[in-house]
């Protein structure tokens, strides 16, 4: 699999204090026809895991599970336990990407409406093969 990913930070500004919050977005750039694996959030095994498009309304949910894993068409979701802990990572795989797969997604656990429960992801499907690249986000806290 050839994919590129990175992070970007989109701040919300307050006219008196500057940055008051920030939204991190993970970007994945993947060639048409390839597969991608997105890792996001941490959870305990019993927590609901989900992957959805855009705003994550009920009709936007692509795949979800309260178990360890689930598969639906080209999408699979799996919870992977970390060694010697009760926490783990949520992994979502999408196979045979098409241009129509480009867009904003959310991956997370628990309630899909709480910002603390999900990670915003942008998938960009491109023609041809590209080398991997990455850029890192910076979080700014104003006290």
Automatic annotation (TrEMBL):
SUPFAM superfamilies membership: Immunoglobulin
Membrane-traversing stretches: none
Any one Gene Ontology cellular component term annotated for this protein: plasma membrane
This protein's record includes keyword DNA-binding: no
Keyword line: Membrane, Transmembrane
Location of the Ig-like domain: 11-119
Pfam families given in the database record: V-set
Localization per Swiss-Prot or TrEMBL: Membrane
InterPro entries for the chain: CD300_family_receptors, Ig-like_dom, Ig-like_dom_sf, Ig-like_fold, Ig_sub, Ig_V-set
Superkingdom, natural source: Eukaryota
Protein name, as recorded: Ig-like domain-containing protein
One GO molecular-function entry: transmembrane signaling receptor activity
């Amino acid at each position: 699999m050839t994919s590129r990913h990175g992070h970007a930070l989109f701040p919300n500004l307050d006219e008196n204090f500057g940055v008051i919050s920030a939204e991190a977005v993970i970007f994945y750039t993947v060639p048409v026809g390839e597969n991608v694996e997105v890792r996001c959030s941490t959870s305990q095994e019993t927590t609901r895991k989900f992957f959805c498009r855009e705003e994550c309304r009920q009709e936007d949910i692509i795949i979800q599970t309260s178990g360890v894993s689930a598969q639906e068409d080209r999408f699979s979701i799996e919870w992977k336990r970390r060694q010697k802990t009760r926490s783990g990572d949520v992994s979502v795989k999408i196979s045979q990407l098409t241009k129509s797969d480009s867009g904003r997604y959310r991956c997370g656990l628990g309630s899909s409406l709480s910002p603390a429960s999900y990670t915003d992801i942008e998938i960009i499907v491109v023609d041809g093969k590209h080398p991997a690249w990455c850029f890192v986000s910076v979080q700014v806290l104003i006290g």
